[in-house]
Structure formats: C-alpha cells, structure tokens
Amino acid sequence: MSEWAAxxxxxxxxxxxxxxxDQGEGRAVVLLHGFPTTSALWSEMGPALTPQFRxxxxxxxxxxxxxxxxxxxxxxxxxxxxVRELLRSLDVEPVAVVGHDIGGAVAQLLALGGGVDALALxxxxxxxAWPIEGxxxxxxxxxxxxxxxxVGDVIDLALELGGMADxxxxxxxxxxxxxxxxxxxxxxxxxxxxxxxxxxxxxxLGALDVPALLVWGEDDPYIGVEVADRLVEVLARPALVxxxxxxxxxxxxxxxxVAPLLEQFLATHLLxxxxxxxxxxxxxxxxxxxxxxxxxxxxxx
Length: 301
Fold this sequence. Notes:
The structure is a single chain. This protein has helices spanning about 45-50, 75-90, 100-110, 135-140, 150-160, 170-180, 185-190, 200-205, 225-235, 250-255, 255-270, and strands at about 10, 15-25, 30, 55-60, 95-100, 115-125, 210-215, 240-245, 290. It is of the alpha/beta class. It has a single domain (about 10-300), classed as Alpha/Beta hydrolase fold, catalytic domain (Rossmann fold), CATH 3.40.50.1820. Helix 3 links the parallel strand 5 and strand 6 (about 115-125). The two termini are about 20 Å apart.
C-alpha cells in the first residue's frame, strides 16, 4: 500500500483541505470511499486502473489525511461539492465516478449534477435506506464515549463484521488511526450521515443516461443486496455483479475479482473497447451477473 498514498493536497473555497491520490494518465476515474474508511480502501484496485486511466482518490473531508473541520458540513451533499471543486481544479471533467458505502451517495449526487460519463457503485447507500441502525446508535452516543478506546473498538468491530480479513493491519490502521487520534472527528463524520440528498429522487436517477456497474457482497450486513436490486429497477443502464461469500468491503475482500470487472466496464464505456453483452431485462437493462468467487479473503486463490 506504500505506493498508494494521498499525498496531493487541495484547499476548497471553504478552507477544507483534501488529501488525494492522483496517479496514471488518460480519462479520469474518481474513487470515493465510505465510512469509516479512507482512500486506502482502493489501494488494491486503484493501481490496476492506472495503466489506462487517470485515477483520483480523495480522502473525503473529515476523513483520513484530509482536514477535519468542526465548522463545515460533512454530509454527502457537501462532500459532493468538495469533490467537484477538486475535479474542477484538476480540469478532468467529464469523469467516471466509483463509490463505496456513503461514497456511493456522493457518486450518485455527482452524477445527478452532471459531468459524469459512467457510474460504479460498490455496496453503496441509496434512496432513503440510510443511515443504518448501527450508525443511528452511534449518532446518539454520550459525550463520555467520545474517546480513543471506544472509537477504536467501534471501528474494529465494524471492519470485522463487514468482512475485513484478519491480519490486514495496514488497512485497519489506515482507517482507524486518524479517528482514534481525533475521536471528535469520528463522531462529526458519524453525525453527518444524515440520509438526505437521494430520498425521493428515483425519477431523476432513472433519467441518468449513463452506464452503471453495481457490485455487491451477498453477505453485506450493512447495505443488503436488496438495495442493489432496487437500483437495477430504477437506473436506466445497470449491470449488477453479486459476490457470494463477500461482505461490505468488497474493494478489499475481492479486489482480484472486481478490479478486472471494473477495468473492463470503464474500458468499454470510456474507451470504447471490447464490450461483452450480458443478460437483458425486458426493458433493455443489463441483468444480474453472478460471480462465483471460489476464493479466499481479499480475492486470493
């Protein structure tokens, strides 16, 4: 993971500072992490894309190496604004946007705002189906719980239940370290997951004329595959890949499987290369694609 680091910096008009990865050349692909992770979530998939694409992976404001302001909004609508500022500063529109968890909400908001040529969602929040119960419980935490030990324990449990591999200390530290060092920032991030911005926008999502790849762990305990099924019904050009035996953190759990799928999807729709037609719905939508892993954790044989 040492070569995949958010070392670039950008300051937004509001004063928030975004740390981000910027590697490769060509059409831009933006990778957006969720809660409670960082751009390190993409450290195994991102490098696989750089031979063909310019890959940009920010730490969302309030996460990782980005600034953790106490006086700025951190909800997904604000995050979409910060990311769009970053992209404009880099002059990379139009782009492909890939989002995991609440990064998926940011990705959808960016697509609804225009300038997105392709969309990929990995175990993403959508519609009104968030925040989940565990997040709501954290949002109601008492002030005495805002301390490093509690935050570390919560993140460890969230990663374990979500399918993170045992012994993956590098990624675990990348996710938990910044919040353990600043517990107040953890709770600001938690309380910013407000569930607003996508509820009631099914018709707008359906009007998006962009290809959409949906990748879901069948055993995701946080955002079930029924959310993906609903996205398939709403989006105009979806393709759903479900991953048996995988939980929530599919970009790490099954990187060896899903990185080539994402690369092919982007090459097809951004570069016009080698498209293989999948099953079709009656309305011309791509149907679910079952991917039998037969793999250990992290997509290794």
